[in-house]
Write a structure and sequence with these properties.
It contains eleven helices and six strands. The protein has about 425 residues and is of the alpha+beta class. It has two domains: about 10-55 and about 115-280 and about 325-430, Outer membrane efflux proteins (OEP); about 60-85 and about 95-110 and about 285-315, Outer membrane efflux proteins (OEP) (Single Sheet), CATH 2.20.200. The protein has a four-stranded antiparallel β-sheet, with no helix packed on it. A two-stranded antiparallel ribbon has the order 2-3. A hairpin with a 2-residue loop joins strand 2 (about 85-90) and strand 3. Helix 3 (about 35-55) runs antiparallel to helix 5 (about 115-180), helix 9 packs antiparallel against helix 10 and helix 10 (about 325-390) packs antiparallel against helix 11. The longest helix has about 70 residues, at about 325-390. The two termini are about 20 Å apart.
Amino acid sequence: MGPDTASAARQSWEAFFGDPNLAALIGQALQNNQELHITQLEIEIARQEIRARKGEYLPSVGLLGAAGLEKLPRYTVLGASEAATQIAPGRSAPDPTPNYLAGTRASWELDVWRKLRNARKAASYRYLASVEGRNFLVTNLVAEIAGTYYELLALDNQLALVRQNIQLQTNALASVRAQKEAARVTELAVRRFEAQVLKTRSLQYDIQQRIVMAENRLNFLAGRYPQPIARTTQAFNQAASDSVAVGLPAQLLVNRPDVRQAEAELAAAKLDVRVARARFLPLVSVDGLMGLQAFQLSYFFTAPESIVLSLAGGISAPLINRNALYAGFYSADARQQQAIVRYERTVLNAYLEVANQQALARNLSQSYALRSRQVEALTESGAIANNLFNAARADYVEVLLTQRDALESSFELVETRLQQLEARVSLYRALGGGWR
């Protein structure tokens, strides 16, 4: 892909395109495009997922309040023990017994196997993937706006060619009518020339409709209602069509957002496998309770008799029916394999896109040079055919065919120029430019 280490992807879109009207359009689209707004909200969702995962491996502390009423059977161990117990001389607990509790409860799962930390890191990588997804969307948005803008300029040039040809054909029609009056041609020649003028005029309205559609497409991408697109006809031929610096192949891994997105998703998938594997290991937790508890509100704040303290540690591990854990592990492993293949495919696609667009740019450059010479030759032949026809040395059919060929070749030249500009835009996008 060339030895040059400089890549056009490092250029900002303002510097790469160099058209103030196009730059203003792209700038407004980056602010108002609805698809970008949706993607930004997805990034916010991913950011909140990181916060949620981070909270899972920190201690959970909460307030606890409870009130209840309990009656134990008299002829049970607990019931008999409670009946025999007196809280004061000559006074026993009421039956049934109320129970009031207020305090703080804490629980903490000790992340011994880094299951929770890996889940948080996976969420962080998915957040980075969502950011790169937005960057990739920006790259495609910039390329689509630039391509549509150049299409609009090409339509303007084609419309100017059509109007110019309408004038030339109208003049030729007047000349043919004059020759018919002089009995040098028949009514057939007049009708053929008239049909050609009508065909070219109808083509004018087709191009005008395409211009309206291109303008509305740009307005949609810019997130605004229909309005004229600021542009100049000269910008089409003045737009840069020079070669684009590709840089080193390895720079695609750094510049292209979709490659970076696939890389982040692969890293997240690897961590998901570790999380799924850690679920087979014992879970270690600590639970505690501190507060006040009494069967009567008057005793509620009587310390230390009403103080309740509890601290317990536990360990548990799955033993039977671990099918759900196996299913989760195998699913995570399959998603990791998917992420690997997806990453390889993204990298391969990036290289092929750059290679294709480079070859297309070279071939279009040669094609444009040849079509320019073709237009020059047909333009000269059109003037020669008119002169020969006026001198009665050429048939009117030759004039009609020459005019048609000249118009078609001019259209093809504009189309080739448009393809050149679109190939340059596509190569800029393929290199990963436009999102910085």
